[in-house]
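My main concern about presentation is that the manuscript never shows what a single data entry looks like. For the editor and my fellow referees, an illustration may be useful. For illustration, here is how one protein appears when written out as sequence plus structure tokens:

***
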Amino acid sequence: MHQVQKSQVMAASPELLDVLSKDGQKTGISKPRGDVHRDGDYHRAVRVLIFAENTQQMLLQKRTDCKEAWAGLWDISTSGHISAGSSSLATASGRHNSADNLGLCHEDRRELHEEIGIKLPSDAFEFMFSYLEQSVTNDGKYVNNEYNDVYLITTLDPIPLDAFTLQESEVSGMKYLFWEDYRRLLAEGDPGFVPYDVNGQYGTLFEIISERYKGNVEERAMVLEKQLNRYCHVSLSAELTGLADADKEALGLLIKTAKIMDEIFSQQVWCSNPCLRDWLREHADESRLDKLKWMYYQINGTPWSALDENEPFLSTADSAIKLLPDATKPVNGWKGLEYRAAFPLSRPHGANFYPRDMEKREFELWNDSLSDDQKMQATGSFHTVRRQSEGMLDDAVFLSNDITNSYVHDLYSNPYSQEYQSLLAEAADLLYKAGNLSSSPSLTRFLHSNADAFESNDYHESHIAWTELDSKLDITIGPYETHRDTPPQYKATFKAIIGIRDDEAACKVKLFADNFQVLDKNLPIDEAYKSNVTNAATIRVVNLVYRAGDLKGTTSVSFDLPNDQRLTLLLKNVAKAKFKLLFQPITNVCVSEEQRGLLDFESLYTHVICREYCRALGPHAITLGNGQKSSVRMEMQELHSALEEAKASIVGLWAIRFLTDKDLLPEKLIKPMYVSFLTGCFHSLRFGLKKAHIQAQALLFNYLSEKGGIVLLPDETFYVDFDKVENGVESLSREILTVQGRGDKAAAKSLLDKYSVISQPLRGALKKLEMLQVPVDIAPAFPIWPEMN
């Protein structure tokens, strides 16, 4: 790859299109547009529809009589090919690609701007879907195998027809038509319109508009109320009397810093997310429905519902209205174009870490062209991936040596320290001030190293300082977990967890740490598979004072931070709140009457702590049957997380029985622990089966039920057979540990396929909890913020 001079590229006058594979992936080859249609190559185009919300009309254009295909027919608002090296969104919006400025993509701008004279920012474009269109016209001379990316622009009112500037070679007229009439004419095959199959995927567009504007406000309000009622609101606080005065003053600064993590995370979720948030807040008092929208958004921090597997509870129709006075040529008496800031129908896999129209193959082609250091940035946790064309970076366009088959790499890595520069600079200043106030040297070191990391983008020293933190005031703040860009889970989101160390839990934590090697040596597994682990995990138990950032939608009782299973933070007051508000009602519905009284928080929390220690027990580095050295993670691949979660939980139950038999824990813990564990299974499985730890809970519940340890009674409640459940616990512990020790992925898959399911008994219990409206999760509030502000 090398940089190309402008004079070189200008000679390449034919418009080039990226050639795609049959499944729509870029091949890295480009050809002139005429050759693509002559040869029937697969390629990509965009189709943009402009919809007027208040009149429910679609904007249509009339194609000129000189067009190669569908001459003289009425068509959607605008459409066109995506030139080689350009992106779907750049083509749709008419943004100048960086390659375009070198003369390579000379037709990119025509689609919206050049064809009809409209300039709109990228947040006006709502991606709807892609579909494959195949046709042969012009006596077989024009073969179209075209993947179309369909975008919707929602304006409040129709754009005056006088506002359009038509490209005479492409468009001969414009008109608005009610969307229902347009759908009917397409369904009837009216010869005056470019044909689209409204009974196929293209018809989805009309279905979405119909659902979006059906206008039953009361029904929507009832749905949102039901979603809100799944949360139990609770005020969380922690005792501050053990803090030095200087640390209390530092705490106020840390909470202000945490608020900045909220702002950064809002940007990381989706480019228009902060705009949506501000709009909902400003209009929350306008109606009951608007109030409910804002309340539910505050819980999720996004327009996607965490308890509904990220299904949207809002649409672009609920989003912010923006005014653009200069989007078109001026028209007397018209103030300008008002549009809705768009967001996608489903939560984007890449969040806002990548260009929203970036394809996997595009990323791979770009990444393959990079040096090793550049690849580390591209796939690293602390860099976003952006387009040159979005920033008009004309000086960084890379092409292959062959101009005819060129491929433009429009992507580049941007460090978080630049991406969020102003916010991180403010946060760093607050951390430095808080560190200077702190009475704890280890806290000062962590806060100062974290502040340095915000500016340098190097978090290594900060993570080390976090592991060595020993202050009463416990802080986790910065980019840590990588789960929002799924797959590949490269990019870290910002969060903040501020807590006070729980001294009462220290003895229990020390008990498990002191006996870690004893547990490892006595695991129910063949000696050949024992790992002889010598270092226990670092576990800190705190009471949560404040949280911010990527902690929306659901409330967890534990975090592995930084993103390392050997470093775990447990939130005790969160666990207590869940026990009181969620576990107790679940027990009253699902557990047999004679065992309900056994539910006990200390037994439950003993298992929670033990489970975290048990993550490090058992096989990790392994030797396969052929003598090859490997690891459990490498052999289990995508199954590793679920199996590891199952191991930690089931071996945690085994370990508590083992330590009880050694008189290190009281016998009175055992029965309450199993009943609490049973209740915990019902609680976890209410969140669906997508997450690894919930798949693990399903595995344990169904396996122990099969072994007779958990029994369904005629009244549809469950009870624990304490003799059989312990046999089942040891049996499953042995089976999972052996599967890991052997690196037997096939056996792991068989185990998960069989048991990680919502069985009929589970389905009945979950349905009963839903019918009785037992809350699913808590929504914590933090009274300390108003007090300290």
Observations:
- Confidence is low (pLDDT under 50) at residues 1-12, 96-110, 392-407.
- The first helix runs from residue 6 to 10.
- The CA atoms of residues 228 and 295 lie 8 Å apart.
- DSSP finds 28 helices and 28 strands in the chain.
